[in-house]
Amino acid sequence: MGLDRDENRVIVETENGKILGNREGSCLEFLGVPYASAGRFEYPEPSGKWEGILDATEMGAACPQYRQWFAHLDVPERLFYHREFREGLDIRYDEDTCLNLNIYAPENGRNCPVIVYIHGGGFNSGANCEEPFRGNRLADRGVVSVFINYRVGVLGYLTNAEIREKTGFDGNFGLHDQITAIKWVKKNIADFGGDPDNITVMGQSAGAISIQYMCLDRRNSGLFSRAVMLSGAGLFPKFALPRTAEKTHEYWDAFLDSAGCGSLDGLKALDIRDLFGKLEDFRSGRKDNVYNTMPVVDGRLLEKPVDEMMGDPMDIDYMIGFTSCDMYAPLMAKIGMDYAKKTGAYAYYFDIDAPGDSNGAFHSSDLRYMFGRLGTSWRPYTKEDETVAETMMDFLANFAKTGDPNGDGLPRWESVRKHGGKPLRFRRDKISAAGPNYLKLAYNMISKGEPKA
Fold first, then answer.
1. Do 191 and 67 fall within a single domain?
2. Is the pLDDT at 73 greater than 90, yes or no?
3. What is the residue-wise DSSP string for 304-368?
4. pTM for the complete prediction?
5. For residues 413 and 394, what is the distance between their CA atoms, to the nearest angstrom?
């Protein structure tokens, strides 16, 4: 790496060409770096070489999604998360350039552990530029972090017989994007000071579910060494598991008809705003939208039903977490701990009520702690919260380095195998192994459920 004439800029040379990034203190930022390209309803192709110097000093575009045009801020849950993670941000959306990633690297780092983060959003929304997703504080701990964008919603999970006839499989464009991004990181991250042989994949909610699917496929062995799954690990009830691609064709064929498109080519030709407008009209008359806009058993990335694959996950290091007021709190706690016991994971139970309202430790409330972003929130976090955040970042950095989160000056964290199947419990006043009734406490939170906002 070499500094540009402007001391706030830095240039790195990669196999694909030179990249211009930002220098923020001792952290180097490379934003909106393209890792692949893809046509609509086509599978990703890794990025090739570019001419000149790629400007990576500003956030890249996110995948187009319903909230780009249909914010639905009158829906309490959506208003809640908009205020929590997106309010005030200038998020761009673009179908052609959304397959990009943000890299945060320690200046002068060499062979640093790498974390690749996959955002959540129910497989229908989300972006790598949302408020919690910055890697500066992890760079201070000697970790290179990468936050990826991938296709969501109709662009990420439509299925269609024409595609299957052409490629032998269909659906899961978003999962293919994620795998392609991780492969890009493995190939290129050494140019940014990262160790390609020490990659941790990390995600929350839909991102965690995506990672679990990767961990059930032994063909991914060697692509990454560790996995962190927050609020999304474990075997969900049968009705919430991926269907076969063929079983979702009826839904998407019905959408084609409602959109007035006689074929997939007709859908490809629609203006992106028109596409989402027609989809919004279609969704308003259906009650099965969620289960048709998510990963499918495609015979390629998911070769067979998930419940048949759960017995033999990859033999790597795992960290699993959930919050006390998580989405479907009792279920998330139970299935997460079942999977933690199966994998011998380090598990945590985040039991810190967010200050400022009565929503408790809501789904995603641990993210600001994990990345040290409490100070950018509207919530009145305290010094005690900052202390917990520092501890959580230390745990995460240590786990990325060695597969063991423990370190000098930190509370002792035993894996569930060593601690009788119990997680570490995070509270403001104390971080310690959970007591025997921690799961009962999670069950008692069911009355709170999701944010009331």
1. yes
2. no
3. S-HHHHTTS--SSEEEEEEETB-TTHHHHHHHHHHHHHHHT-EEEEE--PPTTSS--SBTTTTHH
4. 0.95
5. 12
